[in-house]
Task: structure prediction
Amino acid sequence: MARAVTNRRKTIATAAAWTIGFLIFFPILWTVLTSFKSEADAIASPPKFLFFDWTLENYATVQERSNYFRHFWNSVVISVGSTLIGLAIAIPAAWAMAFVPGKRTKDVLMWMLSTKMLPPVGVLVPIYLIFRDTGLLDTRTGLVIVLTLINLPIIVWMLYTYFKEIPADILEAARMDGASLRSEILYVLTPMAVPGIASTLLLNIILAWNEAFWTLNLTAAKAAPLTAFIASYSSPEGLFYAKLSAASTMAIAPILIMGWFSQKQLVRGLTFGAVK
Amino acid sequence: MSTTMRALLGATALCMASGMALAETLTIATVNNGDMIRMQGLTEDFTAKHPDIQLEWVTLEENVLRQRVTTDIATKGGQYDVMTIGTYEVPIWGKQGWLVSLNDLPAEYDVDDLLPAIRGGLTVDGNLYAAPFYGESSMVMYRTDLMEKAGLTMPEAPTWDFIKQAAIAMTDKAGEVYGICLRGKAGWGENMAFLTATANSFGAKWFDMDWKPQFDSEPWANTLNFYLDLMAQAGPPGASNNGFNENLALFQQGKCGMWIDATVAASFVTGADSTVADKVGFALAPDNGLGKRGNWLWAWSLAIPAGSQKTDAAKAFVAWATSKEYLALVAEKEGWPNVPPGTRTSLYENPEYQKVPFAKMTLDSINSADPTHPTVDEVPYVGVQFVAIPEFQGIATAVGQQFSAALAGQTSAADALAAAQALTTREMTKAGYIK
Result:
């Protein structure tokens, strides 16, 4: 009897998980399907789900009109660059806060988080003026700097949480064995926190990849990443939903594939320390 | 390698290097619409004539572009050499000294050929600050078959009363055919573009000569009540979410009897994606016999920001893209219906273009709008479907939210107007217009 209940529960839980997963994934699926429709089929009412004339025309048009690879490369440089610099700064910072907390550590952490509470548009003009005067407008370097600074609080917070789970005794033992501070962080702490660091890395690459306010406002032609590529296909006067969907699919495909392959690390990292 | 070969190679390298050094790159910010995309495809003609100028395009969605170029021009960021801006920005930016005057375009450009209404909207204190790339007004697009079935004939210049009568007669809610589709989505360029232009034909205005808001006046109450009643009787469900694209989709699927919107829609509803392409007629936007029609005036235009270091090259590009020769080039490559409309008198005198079904109605609609005298009474502002002051975007979007809520049935017309009056008075006082 108990086994029957367990099985039924398991079935219900599995069905619920699949339903929720499908609901979350549906907008992406719909975008991908629309990208293979003609513009007329894209707005058909009732909507056509699978039975329509599949076409690659939208991808051909997008490819012909835009320089996809330039935008793609800009996205890669900006998201990976800002995340790696962010990690290089955040690992020592999170180590200090987790293992050598001071009187004001909690306040510093809260202050860092509070910087995320300001709407970005509030500082657009000052940052734009600084970028103009330093020649950083429409450069990848400028965007790497801005995205590093924006995502730094999240990186520090995530790493701090992971580091807190690591017993301080192990680090102390390493110190007693004569490890320097550098060796302690590099050879003892980092390997133990690899799942946490990996998930932080992946999550921040995704955040930086999808960031659309600064990447649109601080770029023009040269450094524009895939967010600007998508924005160039949106139009309030004219039905270009199929082309917009093709552009969106091309923009999200790399990060979706990366997420798919690294989902194990992501889940492991995000649930790190959740069960004791 | 012989000495001659070496000398030749050296000379070639030098020529290439000097050519590269001389080449100027223009960065052009533009919107994503059919005419602009077509232009990007035809720029070889320009670069062949100007081999020393290279073009770099930044195409963005309209609202993103507006935010982007406004930030850049206000801070003199200098990211763009040519900007695509509308008739709303030109008077404001021209007055601020943010744009380069285009009074010195060459004689063969024939500036007098520009349509007077469009040129007037782009001129500040006698200076032309932008060259129109395409112009549009609004008009009635209707289903000829449904009109015939209703036993009615659409006049060339209908009244609002006729529109209401026809809309009710054409409606078949069970068959999902709605007599009229109008904008309902909140936004200064969405429902407020339509409602402000409509209000002009009802004798309403945004402000009196002392900049006092007029939403508490009878003409505004008449405008809003008429619109809400018309939409309740003959409009599609969920109309408060409908903008240009949503109504275009409904019309193309045969679900609208009439649609009053931008003249640029004419080429879409008669195009290949439309299921009713051969059953569409056109008429002027309606009036109420007060001397003003409910149509707007807009032109996407090319302007040069004052911060650009490449003014001469930018002027050469602007002159090319808005010239008579460019219109002829589009006609040759893509056919007359695809020529950017609404900018030049000579286009409408061309017998080939006169064969395009919506050509005459587009010209008549543009000519019947006057941005310098948009309303029945005298007003202190210019702009037909907008008020050319920087505060308008924010205020009109907030007012648009009130009117959209009234259309959705969340508030009454009287409450929406009272809220609009209060918020507009507050903002105009804060901005210093009302002492």
